[in-house]
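Filed under: proteins

Residues; backbone shape codes:
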Amino acid sequence: MKIAVISDIHANLFALEAVLAHAENQGIKYFWCLGDQIQFNAFPDQVVKTVRKMDPVAIQGNVDRAILKLGKKKEENITEEEMPFYWTYKQLSRKNREFLADLPSTTKVKLKGYRFLLTHGSPKGIADNVYADTPDDYLRDLTKLTRADFILCGHTHKPFIREVDGISFINPGSVGKPVDGDPRASYCVIQVKKGFVTIDHYRVEYDLASALSAMREYTLPDIYIRALEASVLQSQLTEPEPAKE
């Protein structure tokens, strides 16, 4: 059984569609989504609609949660700093808001005897940061909070695999807002068979120019546009880490 694990799409429809096409070419029909589907790019409603059609095992991200909470405020009470987030909320259809609101913060999946925990940050919290260089002692503390063989986490937008005491931490990276110097969309594929599990990370090219054009068309904040542009500039200065394509 193959599962595509995606996270941190952040309203980047072009990146999501490229990842889905890449996964389809591998014959993948099952998806796990680790949260933060919206904000920072131009197509929050279309992204959530696309995710819903995938019928994934999905959880809520910290940004998803924050925007839903912000949407409960009266518009006249929204501050200037909050307006870009409120714009995202207003773009979402009622069904898509309900879909995001109904998602759990974590969920567990058991496949062929292996236990998988899906989180956005970590077992400690939805906004907890786990990185490739997080100390082993901290990872051990996290493993004590749950019973799982594999702990899947997003949030940091940086792909990695770490193992401590026989338990694997896996981050698929970010589909729509990478921050590791490689502008391509990032996701991973988990293959589960009786007796073993394999994990492969992939980087996928997408129409970045159109994504940036859409952000300008919808007059999203310059800081959002510069962040996406910076991933391209950084990749031109540093050699991206090798990944499967």
Remarks:
- The mean pLDDT is 93.
